[in-house]
Specification:
Uroporphyrinogen decarboxylase (URO-D), alpha/beta, two-stranded antiparallel ribbon, TIM Barrel, single chain, Uroporphyrinogen_deCOase, 7-stranded parallel sheet
Length: 334
């Protein structure tokens, strides 16, 4: 297997060059220990040193953005290692008024960039690092859980006032992440789904703030990645975002990679079914998904990755099958 510098490989895929070795990145949570910055940094470094992925998607606990506003969270054994909100911070409409500006360098927010800085020093610039950032509307949903949908439709001014605060704190956090050693952000939205909101609603309460964050980073980082979580995503709307990488559950919901290429001309990240094939499939079946993704895109502007975070039980043999198929795709026998 040829040893190609991660930065050179990423630069080539961003240009649209044909690649002998397709870039790969997979990411997972490190539950419980991810709440300790030092342990999270060490896990990140060990994960990257073991697998030599082409970018590092930093993996803070998924509830970090709500804890400083009073949400209680816990890891309750989810197969993907994610924490959940056990007690919402916003229970009534008037509680949105309590969402006041925070110092993004303190508390749970600050811990994530402390951890990232430690990981960045350990990796010493060898690979691009993306800090995970939740869209303001995603953070708002975690603050209020399912009650947010009623407030969006019945009390929009209260939601917008809180989103203004959340966005400002998120921008501060993103800029601190770049200073800490991140080369861009992984912006995750969990509400850009036709099952949850109308396009008009998402444009008002979601996209407006998402794009403000991305614009605040313009010229300050190497590249950014958008992750659209869930089913029936608003691909037409999201494909206009100013990002270089786009990731979603392409094996589970529309569009597939081939149709996505018609609407998003930059780099697609995906091709793997992390819920099924990576957990239950044979190495040959896993390699088959990799090869199919390459075929759908002609191997250009593609990074092989999961639709979302890996289950913590994903076997090393499954990850190895992904890496080998992508890096040696011209010689893989199916």
């Amino acid at each position: 297997m040829k040893n190609i510098d991660h930065w050179k490989r990423m630069d080539a895929i961003l240009r649209g060059d044909a690649m002998e070795q397709i870039p790969v990145s997979l990411w997972r949570h490190f539950p419980v220990e991810d709440t300790d910055p030092g342990k999270l940094a060490r896990h990140t470094i060990a994960w990257q040193e073991k697998w030599q992925f082409d970018f590092v998607k930093f993996m803070p606990p998924g509830t970090f953005s709500v804890e400083d506003w009073g949400a209680a969270t816990a890891y309750t054994g989810a197969t993907n290692g994610a924490r959940v909100v056990t007690n919402a911070a916003v229970k009534r409409t008037e509680d949105w008024k309590e969402i006041r500006h925070l110092n993004a360098r303190a508390g749970s927010w600050g811990q994530q960039n402390i951890a990232l800085a430690q990981a960045a020093r350990g990796l010493n610039g060898s690979v691009p690092i993306l800090q995970t950032v939740f869209s303001p509307l995603t953070t708002a949903r975690k603050l209020a859980t399912e009650g947010i949908f009623a407030d969006i439709r019945c009390n929009p001014d209260a939601i917008e006032a809180a989103l203004r605060v959340i966005t400002d704190v998120t921008i501060d956090f993103c800029l601190d992440a770049i200073r800490a050693g991140a080369h861009g952000i992984f912006l995750a939205t969990q509400l850009a789904s036709h099952r949850l909101l109308t396009v008009t609603e998402y444009e008002r309460f979601g996209a407006k703030y998402d794009i403000e964050i991305l614009e605040a980073l313009r010229g300050r980082c190497q590249f950014n990645m958008l992750h659209a979580h869930g089913d029936d995503i608003m691909f037409d709307l999201l494909s206009s975002y100013p990002v270089q990488l786009f990731n979603w559950h392409d094996r589970l919901t529309d569009p597939d990679l081939r149709r996505a290429r018609q609407k998003f001309s930059q780099v697609l990240v995906g091709g793997l079914n992390e819920h099924n094939t990576l957990v239950r499939g044979t190495p040959q079946e896993i390699a088959g998904e990799v090869m199919d993704a390459i075929e759908q895109t002609d191997g250009r502007r593609l990074i092989i990755g999961p639709g979302c975070v890996l289950p913590v039980a994903t076997a090393d043999s499954a990850i190895q099958a992904v890496v080998e198929a992508a890096r040696d795709h011209n010689t893989v026998a199916l």
